[in-house]
Amino acid sequence: MEHWLNKRASLTPNQIALEMEEESYTFYQLQQKVKTFAGQLGRFQIKGHIGILSDNSSEMVIAFWACTYLQLPVVFLNTRLAISEWQQQCTDADVEWILTSSRYLDHAEHLNLTVKTFFEVKKLSVYEPASVDEIDLHRVCSMMFTSGTTGRAKAVQHTFDNHWSSAVASSLNLGLLSNDKWLACLPLFHIGGLSILIKSVIYGMPVYLLEKFDTEKVHKAIMEDDVTILSVVAVTCSRLLERLDEGQYPASFRCMLLGGGPAPKPLLEKAQAKQVPIVQTYGMTETCSQIATLNEQDALRKQGSAGKSLFSASLKIIGENGECGAGQIGEIIVRGPYGIAWLLPSDY
């Protein structure tokens, strides 16, 4: 398949790809910046996996897409972890190189790895590496670690096919409008954040990128900057509804996609009273983002539910005696092109 960013830059070169508070890039401009960075990073002739340690930023976005041209699987590191945890994850994921923002350089230099900042790479002259203009859907694109709540954190590998299938399934569920703009304030080192970048390039849809969730900035983006979709968790959703007060979002605002756990009934009732569509969803790192979504009209009638599995995915709840009935507890079994991911290392 033709590289997604090349194809998008060819189809809609003047469409906004990435919008931030102070600047924005069209898809053509993003492609050019990405290819330049790939040429600069290519001077190091890196082999294997490369880690990215950064908060949300345009530099992080550019670095990620540049790595896809160099066929370097990106291992996303959670900025909230301790140095020892980064080191363990880099060892598990066979990372020898780290790209980071200046903010985390002092900490990253304690790792037993080669570390370069985005700024250092951007100062280099462009090398002509063997970059690719085709995507092999079966190649690994990115790697992220599970939360480790049930044991040691595991590295989940996402292929390009996983990302493609997830983006297609999401659009079949939510639909895709020509004026859509998805606000990304979830960390890009989590699958819920990264998936928005993937959708943007595949859909030709602008992303409004914030470094982190900020109630005032998100509220302004919805009210003044034409954001139509927003990914939230229950806490951030509650804060936004409080900020909205007696106001009303523009008619163009389509929904809040709420994940990270069930939404409390009072929150859903408040959202309904304010005419704010809440679409509850279920997903995880291992399923390459959302895999089940509840229709907005069923939010209160099916309170606590995450809805039905998305198109091309199958989902069952299995207990000791086989498939569970309604209200029974069991293990979630998933099948689908974006619900299958590999775990490293092999001895987990």
Structural features, described:
- The longest helix is centred in the N-terminal third of the chain and has 15 residues.
- This protein has two domains: 148 residues, Rossmann fold (3-Layer(aba) Sandwich), CATH 3.40.50.12780; 177 residues, Rossmann fold (3-Layer(aba) Sandwich).
- The protein is built from eleven helices and 19 strands.
- The model has no long low-confidence stretch (mean pLDDT 93).
- The protein starts with a helix and ends with a strand.
- The protein has 348 residues and is α/β, with parallel strands linked by helices.
- The strands form three sheets. Strands 2-1-10-9-11-12-13-14-15 form a nine-stranded mixed beta sheet. It has a seven-stranded mixed beta sheet with strand order 6-5-3-4-7-8-19, with helices on both faces. Strands 17-16-18 form a three-stranded antiparallel beta sheet, with no helix packed on it.
- Keywords: Ligase.
The shape, in one word, is: globular
Radius of gyration: 20 Å
Note the gap between the termini: 33 Å
Order of helices and strands: HEEHEHEHEHEHEEHEHEHEHEHEEEEEEE
Strands of the biggest beta sheet: in what spatial order? Answer: 2-1-10-9-11-12-13-14-15
CATH domain class name of the largest domain: Alpha Beta
- Strand count, sense and closure of the main sheet? 9 strands, mixed
Quickly count the domains: 2
Just name the CATH architecture of the largest domain.
3-Layer(aba) Sandwich
Number of helices: 11
**According to CATH, what is the topology of the largest domain?**
Rossmann fold
Structural class: alpha/beta
Q: How much of the sequence is in beta strands?
A: 15-25%
Number of β-strand runs: 19
GO molecular function: CoA-ligase activity
InterPro entries: AMP-binding_CS, AMP-dep_synth/lig_dom, ANL_N_sf
Family: Belongs to the ATP-dependent AMP-binding enzyme family.
Organism: Gracilibacillus boraciitolerans JCM 21714
